[in-house]
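in:
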């Protein structure tokens, strides 16, 4: 089966009504995530496919990358008024030291692809990405990449054996029976001559079958998570990101709460296509004038007077099953919402640690953190709290929590989640 995903000009796209689904690509470092995103994509953003000079120098993904492709609307989504199904790919890094970046990217996705190196199976960051998926996603597709490295004579048998082994691992997770697809995104590896990817039609079939219409609500205040900011000579400053809530129109006023500045939206684009309006879930670039991009690398943009600042939160803590040691009262934390992070201290109400699920804790921040009670809403509230313990080789998960109250607002929606990162105290000199 062949897919015509590359023959759509800008004029055709402008006349097409797309259903957009944000598709996260996560996995261990060097599992082929960026190669898979490049093989699938037809439109690349300004931050995609490791365009960062440091990424090219080191040969690994260091930042979030965004691109897109579109396919026909599947049968179960027909009748919703859309002409095409567009996937916005969120290519996340896989290195242990970039776990905060991975978490930030995972919170804006509707469907997750977990990429596994077929020759190595589940590795450290594979397991961490699976934990992130369990907390943030409702649907998961597993991609077994680099199957071209198996001998052709035994390839099918080895793939079946790997799938059976992985099935036992996933049986104990939130995704007990995820669809698995074998692909070769870049046959022969990065040093090999260019060859056609293998297994993409089957992968697209699976993605279409597992795609559902995300809940999008254009009401309420507009909140926009900025992940890149840059200037275009003669145009202004462009802030690219994902709409977390509400709606924004050209000529609307938006606020940068951390800088206490209000700017007018001059124009907007979605993957090089000018648009007049964006709503929750849309990936877009907002152009404003008289703004220095050096003052904002990442953060939140919103309707004026929408985002207050919190210094404390009460949360119900859940234990990550992979972590066995206790997390003690007075542990130092990095508390993150989206891409913003501040230090905090945790105090447990019960026995002084988080050995069991359901314990209640206070998170006291040493400085303010901008918060929005509907941030990361994707059908259910996704303000999550994840605690990461630092080690010499990276970080790993300890806990996550559901925020019940913050100092910014008397009460969040029930089950709302705040994202946190646990760091061990520095060693003595």
């Amino acid at each position: 089966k062949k897919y015509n995903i590359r023959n759509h000009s800008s004029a055709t796209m402008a006349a097409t009504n797309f259903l957009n689904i944000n598709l996260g690509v996560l996995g261990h470092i060097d599992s082929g995530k960026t190669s898979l995103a490049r093989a699938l994509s037809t439109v690349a953003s300004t931050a995609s496919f490791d365009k960062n000079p440091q990424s090219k120098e080191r040969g690994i993904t260091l930042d979030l990358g965004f691109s897109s492709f579109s396919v026909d609307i599947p049968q179960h989504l027909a009748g919703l008024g859309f002409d095409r199904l567009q996937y916005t790919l969120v290519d996340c890094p896989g290195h242990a030291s970039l776990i905060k970046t991975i978490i930030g990217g995972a919170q804006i996705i509707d469907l997750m692809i977990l990429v596994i190196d077929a020759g190595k199976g589940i590795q450290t960051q594979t397991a961490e990405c699976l934990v992130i998926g369990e907390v943030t996603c409702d649907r998961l597709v597993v991609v077994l990449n680099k199957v071209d490295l198996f001998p052709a004579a035994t390839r099918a048998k080895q793939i079946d054996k790997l799938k059976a082994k992985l099935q036992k691992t996933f049986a104990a997770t939130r995704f007990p029976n995820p669809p698995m697809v074998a692909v070769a995104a870049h046959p022969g590896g990065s040093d090999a001559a260019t060859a056609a990817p293998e297994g993409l039609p089957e992968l697209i079939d699976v993605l279409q079958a597992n795609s559902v219409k995300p809940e999008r609500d254009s009401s309420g205040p507009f909140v926009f998570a900025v992940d890149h900011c840059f200037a275009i000579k003669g145009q202004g400053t462009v802030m690219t990101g994902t709409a977390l809530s509400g709606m924004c129109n050209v000529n609307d006023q938006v606020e940068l709460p951390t800088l206490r500045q209000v700017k007018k939206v001059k124009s907007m684009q979605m993957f090089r296509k000018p648009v007049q309006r964006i709503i929750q879930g849309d990936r877009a670039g907002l152009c404003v004038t008289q703004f220095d991009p050096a003052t904002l690398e990442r953060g939140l943009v919103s309707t004026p007077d929408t985002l207050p600042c919190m210094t404390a939160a009460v949360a119900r803590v859940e234990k990550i099953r992979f972590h066995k040691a206790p997390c003690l009262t007075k542990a130092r934390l990095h508390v993150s919402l989206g891409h913003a992070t501040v230090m905090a201290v945790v105090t447990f109400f019960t026995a002084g640690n988080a050995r069991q699920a359901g314990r209640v804790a206070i998170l006291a921040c040493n400085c303010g953190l901008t918060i929005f009670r509907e941030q990361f809403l994707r059908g259910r509230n996704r303000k999550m709290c994840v605690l990461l313990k630092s080690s010499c080789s990276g970080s790993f998960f300890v806990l996550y929590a559901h925020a019940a109250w913050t100092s910014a607002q008397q009460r969040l929606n029930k089950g709302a989640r705040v994202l946190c990162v646990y760091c061990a105290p520095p060693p003595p000199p």
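note: Confidence is low (pLDDT under 50) at residues 1-15, 351-358, 372-396, 409-429.
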